[in-house]
Amino acid sequence: MALIIGIESTAHTFGVGVVKDGEIIANERDMYTTEEGGIIPVDSANHHRELAPLIYARALVAAGINERDVDAISFSQGPGLPPCLLAGRDFARDLAIRLEKPLVPVNHCVAHLEVGRITGATDPVLLYCSGANTQVIAYAAGKYRVFGETLDVGVGNFIDNFARYAGLGFPGGPKIEKEAVGGEYIELPYSVKGMDIALSGILTNLRQKLEKKVGKNGEDYTLKNLSYSLQETVFAMLIETAERALAHVGKTELLLGGGVACNSRLQEMTKVMCSERPRKFEVDGEVKNIGETKFFCPPRPLLVDNGAMIAYLGEIMFNAEFELKKNGHICWKKDKIEKIDIMPRQRTDQVDVTWKK
Ligand code: AMP
Ligand code: MG
After folding, report:
1. Is any atom of ligand 1 closer than 6 Å to the C-beta of 257?
2. DSSP label at 34?
3. In the chain, which segments carry CATH 3.30.420.40?
């Protein structure tokens, strides 16, 4: 039981969340956007540094708490864009030193998964579809393991890239979703390798089609048709890998996470896959009944990058370590807090999941 402030800053969003005893009581955020072009990391970091005090103040008011009453500060240590991570680290570190509270470094991807508990998911496979990250993650043998992922770009960045090419600004995902309504299907390359996917070939193909305007057989390569086909093809690829992971690890819960999961077509397709998973199957002559796979999707403010999920995982880690009275993840002393570094390339399976043992 604890009161935790969480700071998120891995890419385009600066967020401050407050969690008290497992309940989210504030989730304030602001996103760096552009009219055209993608994220410029240094500009995004400047956005974070400028807005941090305001977002922080808003979170305290929304939560109705006094900052002196918090038990710890948590922050996204990685993975992410170094200048952006540094902006969040600096803010969290200065806060912890000023308030004389411990600092809890949190893995951003694991936070997306753990916050799924709010929806009732207990041991899910996470289909994590964000800007830079696209991974199928599940807990197995003491760690969060990446069962599948993109071999090149993240699905959000892929969509944003195509949107930018088509003259739409950042973020492109919501614009492509609107554009896709009423589109017709045009065949695109489909690239699944086991539980991994590859997207850059599809991006090239989409760009070429947009340039050409008309296919050999008179197909109409409009932005509408291409947006529709992009969603149908790439979401099917994502769902295929998630389903394979479900079968492989034998889990019966699927959780969506990441900004792309705001897309209602992705949610719909995932729901259909879950409902169609076999209820009965045979292994070595024995009939097993696994029931329908349960589908979980957090509300939008918890799907996109946000401080509440960082505070949420921060509290889980803080409570676990507090109970165990060991000095693992958490920085309790000022000299350790001062030295805490970011981990821009931290992998999900590098995280020592002490709180689950
Ligand atoms: P995240 O990095 O998890 O905060 O997610 C940001 C990414 O989500 C960006 O690449 C957005 O384009 C994408 N995104 C947001 N809303 C949607 C949507 N409705 N459909 C597809 N992608 C989306
Ligand atoms: Mg994210």
Report:
1. no
2. B
3. 3-114+301-350, 120-299
Closest ligand by atom to 304 CA:
1
- CATH class name, domain 120-299: alpha beta
Q: Taking a C-beta distance cutoff of 8 angstroms, is the pair 53, 61 a contact?
A: no
Residues 124-159: pLDDT tens digits? 999 999 998 999 999 998 899 999 999 999 999 999
Is 179 close to ligand 1, i.e. is its CB under 6 Å away? no
Residue 259 alpha carbon to ligand 1 centre in Å:
4
Nearby residues for ligand 2 (ion, Cβ within 5 Å)? 130, 305
Q: What tens digit of pLDDT does each residue of 75-106 get?
A: 999 999 999 999 999 999 999 999 999 999 99
Superfamily of domain 3-114+301-350: ATPase, nucleotide binding domain (3.30.420.40)
Of 28, 238, 19, 30, which Cα lies nearest the Cα of 118?
19
Give the ligand 1 atom nearest the CA of 156: 10
Query: In 268-284, which positions are buried (b, 16+ CB within 10 angstroms) versus exposed (e)?
Result: ebbeebbeebeeeeeee
Instruction: Output the pTM of the full model.
Output: 0.92
